[in-house]
Specification:
alpha/beta; Rossmann fold; Dihydrodipicolinate Reductase, domain 2; 9-stranded mixed beta sheet; 6-stranded parallel beta sheet; 9 helices; 32% helix
Length: 367
Amino acid sequence: MLPGVGVFGTGQTVRSLVPLLQEEGFPVQAVWGRTQEEAECLAIELNIPFSTSQSDDVLLRQEVHLVCILTPPPHTRQIAVKALGIGKNVISEQAATLTDACMMVTAAQYYPQLMSIMNNALRFLPAFVLMKRLLVEGYCGTLQVCEARVYGGSLLSQSYGWAWEELMGGGGLHTVGSCIIDLLSYLTGKRAERVHGMLRTFVRHGATGSGIRSVTADDYACFQLLVAGGVVCNVTLNFNLPGADLHEVMLVGSSGRLVARSTELYGQRNGMKGEELLLSDSNSGAGPSVTGLKAMVTQLRLSFQAQEDRRSWARQPVAMASTFEDGLYVQTVVDAIKRSNRTGEWESVDVRTEDVDPNQNHRTALN
């Protein structure tokens, strides 16, 4: 039986996710927005029967068994921890701080029978699923280098909001870089041990009428990860390119390479004259995020549909999903990159679930 879904958030991801859930047969029962007007408008647009600006009104509804948290990062931890505490399965975006991520891991460990996964749909993108399988099968030989590039237009909202503020989880590193860091860990099966990074904020002021508020969130990030086993990862994120739409991940090994461009996968073994197309785009250019989201929702249906209880789920269909522990690792890497930007040095990645200084998330100085 498919569970009733409660959705937190009113952004573009919600507008993509809700129709996909409904297509797969999930009854989306309630939506939360920061204001009642926001929530009502989205509920009408997406045919959701209940809307509210009070989080408890969604969490306490008996027909809601699965909670999707797609809110601004500062709200994420509170909703996720409360949802798990009252017996709801949870799919969540990245939290705002390392302290928040630790609290989410603690809650997930306390309720291991409940679903607690991160909303990184790139893991489910068919191109990356095939890339991981071919890597394991030896297509590239011994993995040596990972390269990732994501280019696009501005991530800023028109008016002042969390996306402007580094401390609130804004910026390319947190919103997009987090997904790439997690994806590289998934593809390689290994985690970063040391990192080096540089962050910049080139657009310091928003649209006309934004007042005295200035932007502190990064719109350019370049960082390197030294992964266990000697693999080198290099990631470049640039959100100062309106009209550009580049999403590319390349794995280079001793005997070949694999390249995922948007939703397509290419490969070239040493000795071949050119690349071969290993997986074509069958989704009419929907892009990696939406295509991955669609694949993730399909796996969610498989996880829930055979269960007699709407709260029960099978682990195998969503085994590739990112866990809250993975989310903590990602947040640790993000914080280490911010430290490296301040110090100019390589920084160690030390994942801990205890003794995190709640004041460690002080503002990064961006040049």
